[in-house]
Structure prediction request, 414 residues.
Amino acid sequence: MKMATTLQLTTDLSKPIIVVKPSLEFASTPRHCRTSLSLPRFNNIARASSSSSDSSLVSRRHFVSETAALSLTLTTLPLFGSIQPAKSEESALSEWEKVSLPIDPGVVLLDIAFVPEDPKHGFLLGTRQTILETKDGGDTWVPRSIPSAEDEDFNYRFNSISFKGEEGWIVGKPAILLHTSDSGNSWERIPLSSQLPGDMVYIRATGEKSAEMVTDEGAIYITSNRGYNWKAAVQETVSATLNRTVSSGISGASYYTGTFNSVNRSPDGNYVAVSSRGNFYLTWEPGQPFWQPHNRTVARRIQNMGWRADGGLWLLVRGGGLYLSKGTGLTEEFEEVPVQSRGFGILDVGYRSKDEAWAAGGSGILLRTTNGGKTWTRDKAADNIAANLYSVKFIDDSTGFVLGNDGVLLRYLG
Prediction:
């Protein structure tokens, strides 16, 4: 089925497909049905000490007497004096802290983005109609709500958010598209065609009034007029492409269910997506009329794929395997990299720089590389977190987050 025919897409902007409704602002008051969770933080010893010293003033004499008593204790008990600093130093080694969030238990966090014009101002998305906002760089978060969504009987799953300047976009399931032009202070809802193939899983702000939107059936749409019109960037869904190419040797295409398991975009606009069964993957470059399917060259099924900071690809397989492509750009040649996954699946990789990256996965596993992915070491920061970590996002080299289920959010400390 040709998407252009199904959606009756047109480049004639005088015949808009999508009409913008009046702006709908977020309610500023948090929903009362949500409960505030008091979750423990990593590396909060220093903050607690600072707060305590500010709230209680001691006299000089009292301070001197306590210092003398402490010195005597350390002198007479060398064993305990040697253990305590080591324990404190080990705690300080963690580069992540757990952030308390005012959300219901069971919420899965899905995406996060910050306003480029105000790096401390960001939004966090998740299941159960979850949108949180921060204005202090992610240290604290407050709920935001959409009146138009709450009036309906849908419980939205907000999948993706992106900002370019003060302009931002949010997409979710069931089909919902939100747009802001004032850094998220107010949002307008843009209605979508009922003939849209698949669910929207990704959106990327690309310029003024411009965005790129992807569905889980492989449809890619582009707008340059704030969503009034959308033009198809590919000529057909992935199912239609595979029906034409199944005889060309794509293994597993006959079992394709028509949706993506994951999709990731490179900074220069290239896409890589994994089939829902993980038995092959697909790529797309700007200007190509169709997605290009590729056989997997590894024995196990693919879990996720994405882009390295140097332009190459990383590939995760079920069971905790990690592969890196040889060279940069699109390729089918990968080599396995040994990782200490302890048998748990790795679900995502996020690059802080060309050399440093973090991988996250099941049962709170966190892995780090400092040589571009050649070797990985396990960070114990999340060992005691009973949650799966789904996504690693670095906003810049000093701001990063790990998103998981049950409302787990880790913030990078550096």
